[in-house]
């Protein structure tokens, strides 16, 4: 009986785990905050769909601020609107995938489902091709369909030859040939400067800036609790209803609905368990340890993407032995984000390699961060090796290997990047510079396990 | 998931935490995968082998398609994409992908595939630091592949660098970073000693023909004995090298030397201090060859007082250059390491009086870092080389083609190298430099009875 009970619990926990994991990573359409910006973009799209207005807009904000989520959320809102679904086509382009205009145009044709119409036609220019595509849309119904172009990584499109795609899109949107709306998404603040003059003058200069609201810590904590708690069944149904409507957007590239987190998926979690989970969670988050750790995270990065990633790792640790997230887990995980990767790597070096780093540090301190080569460092190390008992009898070839190991780990970097010039110079004489701060070296020396005392002393003072 | 972890933990001692974390994150293909995981740590900490085994286990037990590739092999993006598709598709014939878009679209197609029974996709990329040198869109797309393809897909990147080295101008999307810490001394010893039974088996096979040795061996070879050996071994090697595979290789190679006196019956197996005296020399000489993997008997260099000196001396003596070529090499070294304006004072008998100015005195006050033997060789023209050659050579020799051909011999032997103007040697614009070190030239000088130091500005 007891065994059965345990099994039951483990099953329920696995369900919770799956649910939370999916909600943390796959919820592409739920946006928090940004009310003003959201209604701004929605109105724009609505006007394009219903009145046939043309428009262009840039959505600018740092990574993880929720730019894409904002667009997704707006589209989800608009799906309810029958006329929007019938009247608009969505074309989704990504600067990382559509690396030149030819590829982009092909993809546009496909996404507008015009490959049959365009097949076999020869176009003189890019503009002609695009005009043809838009014309096709007009021909169909009494009213022409409007097209929403979503350009992710907008700054990368600026690097295309002559910015042809951007020029044509903005040109169409400005001259009211066909109702299109161009939504650019980028994380570069100076993106306007990247546009050529003729392109810039055709852009509407409508920009929406998204900055993660540097709200209060309380909001942040509430967000954490919301992301981790289990909702009521009723709200789940509402959410999954919303999701089902998403499939009305028929776009291969965007395909929001597919693989989206679906709360109705899987069995339901029974209410007592849910209640227990939520109270435990609330208790845990109220503790001082948890608050302090979350405060630290908040100081690092306020973006929600970062938070979700962090919580995902916490949720992944759930298992039958530890069925709840504890404040300790939270703290250890938060501490992982605090530590410096380079110091970790330094602590994994051998004593010889660490001695080289120390020699380099002394050289840099004395010569004001002048570049160095192997010979200089080796001479300094040999001086130390003469008086030290641990480093005696280190052969040149081993030290050279250790030096190369540092270079592979990019703890030291060659000054000249071009491979052609470095090929000529012998490796013993190639100039390098240090890619560490003195503080990092200091900390690594302190933390290194079982470091010989004389090496530690040498690290403090270059005098031997 | 638990079975996978249990199976893996037996294979990789001291890596339980990492395996558990990996299992938590991507152990269950019905769960949602994170979009990217970055594994980093020094070489030899088990990044690749753990990931490979993990993917294999996942592929075997769950409906997961896996791909594992090394970024070094992919010198173009296309090769990488097609390799990935091939191993993910597992035998559906070659699939073409010219660019990133084709690749992503192919993956999207698999989502609709009715036969596509697999629920998860795992992609592992070794030497991920190479991705930085590939097309600019490779790394961002790989990190966001899950979002782009809408598959349950996870990309595992492995590298020796911290993730901060990957950041580009506009930043990257978030990844989960896992660090594999270097094994500490206790762990290293534990792992090295764990191949005891395998080692024993191998050696029993080796001594199978010599009956009396086999008897002694069977008696002596205990875990304690092996542990003691590892202890001694690490006391010599650990400070210079913490790379586990490298240590393992060398430890196996040296073990038979350690065993030899015991099998001979000259030393008791329990007499550790005498065994240490026997093995110390070979171990120290093995230390000089670590990473090199030179297959030569270790005891050759045994008993020498100064290994460094000897190896250079040996090389200089074994190099049987003609008499004039030796002088040419010395002349080249002098030309490389002295400034041209000092030549007159160094090599001409009546060079007149030196005027001492404050400026020159200051310039002479050299620190070690400015010495030309530390900074590296400078280039010189063939004319200057010949002039110095004639100045340091006592006798008169004619400028024959025999003499000139020796320059090209030296270039062939990589003792000299061309810096520029390789094509126009005849018009005198070619510039050479000397690639050998001071130690080596001093030895050559000793052979022909010439004091090189006397002619170096650094040592005046």
TrEMBL record, chain A:
Q: State the taxonomy lineage.
A: Eukaryota, Metazoa, Ecdysozoa, Arthropoda, Hexapoda
Q: Which organism is it from?
A: Drosophila ananassae (Fruit fly)
SMART domains the record matches: AAA (SM00382)
Provide GO CC annotations from the record. Answer: cytoplasm; nuclear origin of replication recognition complex; nuclear pore
Q: Which residues form the AAA+ ATPase domain?
A: 53-213
List, alphabetically, the InterPro entries matched.
Answer: AAA+_ATPase, AAA_16, ORC4, ORC4_C, P-loop_NTPase
Identify the coding gene: Dana\GF11538
- Role noted for this protein: Component of the origin recognition complex (ORC) that binds origins of replication.
The molecular function terms of the Gene Ontology recorded here are: ATP binding; DNA replication origin binding; ribonucleoprotein complex binding
- Keyword Nucleotide-binding among UniProt keywords: yes
SUPFAM superfamilies (alphabetical)? P-loop containing nucleoside triphosphate hydrolases
- According to the UniProt entry, the coiled-coil residues are none
Q: What is its main location?
A: nucleus
The record's comment on protein family reads:
Belongs to the ORC4 family.
| Superkingdom in the source lineage | Eukaryota
- Determine if Nucleus is one of this entry's keywords: yes
Subunit architecture: Component of ORC, a complex composed of at least 6 subunits: ORC1, ORC2, ORC3, ORC4, ORC5 and ORC6. ORC is regulated in a cell-cycle dependent manner. It is sequentially assembled at the exit from anaphase of mitosis and disassembled as cells enter S phase. Interacts with DBF4. Interacts with POLQ.
The compartments listed are: Nucleus
- Protein name per the record: Origin recognition complex subunit 4
Biological-process GO terms, alphabetical: DNA replication initiation
Q: Provide the alphabetized UniProt keywords.
A: ATP-binding, DNA replication, DNA-binding, Nucleotide-binding, Nucleus
UniProtKB/TrEMBL annotation, chain B:
Enumerate the subcellular locations listed in this protein's record, separating them with semicolons.
Nucleus
Pfam families assigned: AAA_16, ORC5_C, ORC5_lid
Which keywords does this chain's UniProt record carry? ATP-binding, DNA replication, Nucleotide-binding, Nucleus
Q: Name its GO BP terms in alphabetical order.
A: DNA replication initiation; mitotic chromosome condensation; mitotic spindle organization
Q: Which residues form the ORC5 lid domain?
A: 226-286
Q: Which residues form the Orc1-like AAA ATPase domain?
A: 12-156
Q: What is its main location?
A: nucleus
Domain of life of the source: Eukaryota
Record's signal peptide: none
Q: Which GO terms describe its cellular component?
A: nuclear origin of replication recognition complex
Which SUPFAM superfamilies does its entry note?
P-loop containing nucleoside triphosphate hydrolases
- Domain Origin recognition complex subunit 5 C-terminal residues, every copy: 321-456
Q: Which family does it belong to?
A: Belongs to the ORC5 family.
This chain's protein is named: Origin recognition complex subunit 5
Q: Which organism is it from?
A: Drosophila ananassae (Fruit fly)
Organism classification: Eukaryota, Metazoa, Ecdysozoa, Arthropoda, Hexapoda
């Amino acid at each position: 009986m007891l065994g059965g009970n345990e099994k039951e619990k483990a099953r329920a926990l696995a369900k919770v785990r799956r649910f939370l994991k999916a909600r943390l990573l796959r919820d592409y359409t739920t946006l928090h905050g940004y009310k003003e910006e959201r209604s701004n973009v929605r109105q724009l799209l609505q006007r394009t769909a219903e009145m046939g207005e043309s428009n262009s807009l840039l959505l600018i904000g740092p990574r993880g601020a929720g730019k894409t989520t904002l667009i997704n959320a707006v589209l989800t809102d608009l799906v309810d609107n029958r006329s929007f679904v019938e009247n608009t086509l969505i074309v989704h382009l990504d600067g990382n995938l559509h690396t030149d205009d030819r590829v982009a145009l092909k993809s546009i044709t496909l996404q507008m489902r015009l490959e049959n119409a365009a097949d076999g036609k020869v176009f003189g220019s890019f503009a002609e091709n695009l005009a043809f595509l838009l014309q096709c849309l007009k021909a169909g119904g009494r009213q022409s369909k409007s097209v929403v172009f979503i350009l992710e990584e907008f700054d990368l499109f600026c690097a295309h030859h002559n910015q042809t795609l951007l020029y044509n899109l903005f040109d169409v949107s400005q001259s009211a040939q066909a109702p299109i709306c161009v939504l650019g998404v980028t994380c570069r603040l100076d993106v306007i400067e990247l546009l050529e003059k003729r392109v810039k003058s055709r852009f509407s200069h409508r920009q929406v800036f998204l900055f993660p609201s540097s709200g209060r810590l309380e909001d942040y904590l509430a967000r954490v609790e919301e992301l981790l708690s289990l909702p009521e069944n009723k709200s789940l149904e509402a959410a999954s209803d919303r999701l089902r409507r998403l499939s009305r957007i028929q776009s291969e590239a965007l395909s929001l609905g597919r693989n989206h987190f679906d709360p109705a998926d899987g069995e339901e979690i029974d209410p007592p368990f849910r209640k227990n989970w939520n109270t435990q969670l609330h208790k845990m988050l109220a503790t001082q340890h948890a608050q302090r750790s979350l405060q630290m995270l908040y100081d690092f990065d306020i973006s929600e993407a970062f938070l979700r990633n962090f919580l995902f790792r916490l949720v992944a640790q759930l298992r039958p032995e530890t069925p709840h997230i504890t404040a300790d887990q939270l703290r250890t995980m938060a501490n992982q984000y605090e530590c410096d990767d380079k110091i970790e790597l330094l602590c994994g070096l051998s004593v010889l390699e660490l001695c080289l780093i120390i020699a380099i540090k002394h050289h840099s301190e004395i010569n004001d961060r002048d570049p160095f080569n192997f010979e200089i460092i080796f001479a300094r190390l040999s001086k130390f090796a003469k008086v030290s008992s641990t480093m005696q009898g280190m052969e040149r070839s081993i030290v050279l290997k250790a030096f190369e190991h540092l270079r592979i780990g990019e703890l030291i970097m060659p000054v000249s990047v071009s491979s052609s010039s470095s090929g000529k110079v012998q490796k013993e004489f190639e100039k390098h510079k240090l890619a560490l701060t003195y503080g990092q070296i200091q900390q690594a020396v302190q933390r290194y396990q079982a470091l010989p005392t004389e090496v530690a002393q040498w690290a403090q003072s270059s005098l031997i | 998931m638990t079975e996978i972890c249990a199976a893996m933990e037996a294979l990789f001692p001291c890596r339980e935490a990492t395996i558990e974390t990996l299992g938590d994150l991507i152990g269950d293909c019905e769960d949602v995968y994170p979009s990217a995981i970055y594994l980093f740590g020094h070489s030899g900490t088990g990044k690749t082998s753990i990931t490979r085994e993990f993917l294999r286990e996942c592929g075997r037990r769950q409906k997961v398609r896996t791909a594992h590739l090394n970024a070094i092999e992919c010198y173009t993006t296309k090769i990488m994409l097609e390799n990935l598709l091939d191993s993910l598709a597992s035998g559906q014939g070659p699939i073409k992908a010219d660019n990133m878009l084709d690749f992503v679209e192919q993956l999207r197609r698999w989502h609709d595939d009715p036969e596509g029974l697999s629920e998860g996709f795992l992609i592992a990329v070794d030497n991920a630091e190479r991705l930085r040198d590939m097309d600019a869109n490779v790394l961002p797309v790989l990190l966001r592949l899950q979002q782009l393809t809408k598959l349950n897909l996870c990309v595992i990147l492995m590298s020796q660098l911290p993730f901060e080295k990957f950041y580009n101008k506009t930043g990257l999307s978030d990844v989960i970073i896992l660090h594999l810490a270097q094994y500490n001394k206790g762990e290293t010893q534990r792992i090295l000693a764990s191949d005891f039974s395998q080692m024993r088996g191998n050696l029993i096979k080796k001594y199978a023909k010599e009956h009396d040795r086999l008897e002694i061996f069977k008696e002596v070879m205990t875990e304690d004995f092996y542990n003691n050996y590892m202890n001694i071994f690490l006391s010599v090697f650990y400070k210079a090298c913490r790379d586990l595979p490298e240590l393992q290789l060398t430890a196996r190679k040296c073990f038979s030397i350690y065993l030899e006196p015991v099998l001979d019956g000259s030393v008791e197996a329990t007499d550790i201090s005498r065994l240490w005296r026997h093995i110390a020399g070979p171990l120290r000489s093995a230390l000089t060859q670590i990473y090199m993997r030179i297959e030569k008997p270790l005891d050759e260099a045994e008993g020498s007082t100064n290994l460094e000196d000897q190896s250079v001396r040996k090389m200089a003596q074994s190099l049987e250059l003609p008499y004039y070529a030796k002088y040419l090499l010395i002349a080249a070294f002098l030309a490389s390491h002295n400034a041209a304006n000092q030549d007159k004072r160094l090599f001409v008998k009546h060079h007149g009086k030196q005027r001492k100015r404050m400026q020159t005195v200051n310039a002479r006050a050299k620190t070690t870092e400015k010495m030309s033997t530390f900074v590296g060789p400078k280039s010189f023209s063939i004319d200057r080389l010949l002039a110095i050659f004639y100045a340091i050579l006592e006798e008169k020799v004619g400028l024959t083609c025999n003499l000139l051909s020796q320059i090209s011999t030296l270039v062939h032997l990589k003792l000299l190298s061309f810096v520029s103007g390789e094509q126009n040697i005849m018009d005198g614009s070619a510039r050479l430099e000397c690639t050998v070190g001071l130690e080596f030239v001093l030895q050559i000088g000793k052979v022909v009875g010439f004091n090189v130091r006397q002619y170096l500005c650094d040592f005046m």
